[in-house]
């Protein structure tokens, strides 16, 4: 999600600047129709080429994350074992040092344990036994448009383009053995409670991993339909 949030900094303003549809980058870059049709801004070709490169690099980073996390965790694990052996030598100077086995944790980039499920499951860190996690990935946007300027250090010129991004929060509910987590109903309950505190939004849209939105106005149209008090254009 951190990688996706980083890529969104360039992808979302690019879509706004050039009215890109659909806004799923994988679908957009694999369209068979002419991507330049009806595009009038002279810098579209350059912008599209740069964003395509950023997207390809983003996918490579995503594909490499499992191996990167594993290598980082192995390095931290080796360090912790050496540290434990050193402490044992200091306490028992005249006794032979025993091999110390430490639980193989999954480590984050900041040098702390991942609070959720580890690559090598352990008590309090397995699929059905872990703490709850709430992490704000992107802070709430301002009420007023935030436009880019020519002084921005971005790879694309977003002058006069709204560069705000929606709030993004990672939520993982707590699970413990012996307690029914109620599957999707329990997941939705956790999301509703977190949303009420963090954003208190008036609408909730639940999308599964196999759901896609192919029109950026779809959610707005849905809200107009639900708020119809005298015509579907009232919003």
TrEMBL record:
Binding site for Mn(2+): 184, 208
Domain of life of the source: Eukaryota
One Gene Ontology MF term: cellulose synthase (UDP-forming) activity
Binding site for UDP-alpha-D-glucose: 183
Any GO CC annotation of this UniProt entry: membrane
InterPro entries: Cellulose_synth
Principal location listed in the UniProt entry: membrane
BP-aspect Gene Ontology terms: cell wall organization; cellulose biosynthetic process
Keywords on record: Cell wall biogenesis/degradation, Glycosyltransferase, Membrane, Transferase, Transmembrane, Transmembrane helix
Localisation per UniProt entry: Endomembrane system
Any single Pfam family the record assigns to this protein: Cellulose_synt
Entry protein name: Cellulose synthase-like protein D2
């Amino acid at each position: 999600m951190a990688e996706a949030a980083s890529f969104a900094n360039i992808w979302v303003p690019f879509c706004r600047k050039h009215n890109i549809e659909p806004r799923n980058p994988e679908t957009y870059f694999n369209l068979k129709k002419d991507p330049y049709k009806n595009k009038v801004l002279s810098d579209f070709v350059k912008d599209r080429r740069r964003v395509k490169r950023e997207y390809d690099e983003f996918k490579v980073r995503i594909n490499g994350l499992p191996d990167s996390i594993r290598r980082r965790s192995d390095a931290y694990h080796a360090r912790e074992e050496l540290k434990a052996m050193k402490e044992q030598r200091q306490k028992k100077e005249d006794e032979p040092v025993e091999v110390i086995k430490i639980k193989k944790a999954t480590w984050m980039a900041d040098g702390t344990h991942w609070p959720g499920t580890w690559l090598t499951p352990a008590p309090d860190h397995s699929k059905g036994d872990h703490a709850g996690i709430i992490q704000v990935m992107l802070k709430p946007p301002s009420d007023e448009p935030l436009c880019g300027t020519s002084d921005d250090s971005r790879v694309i010129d977003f002058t006069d383009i709204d560069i705000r991004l929606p709030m993004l929060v990672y939520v993982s509910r707590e699970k413990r053995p012996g307690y029914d987590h109620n599957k999707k109903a329990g997941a939705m309950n956790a999301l509703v409670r977190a949303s009420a505190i963090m954003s208190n939004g008036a609408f909730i849209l639940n999308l599964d991993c196999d759901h896609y939105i192919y029109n950026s106005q779809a959610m707005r149209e849905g809200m107009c339909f639900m708020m119809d008090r005298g015509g579907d254009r009232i919003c």
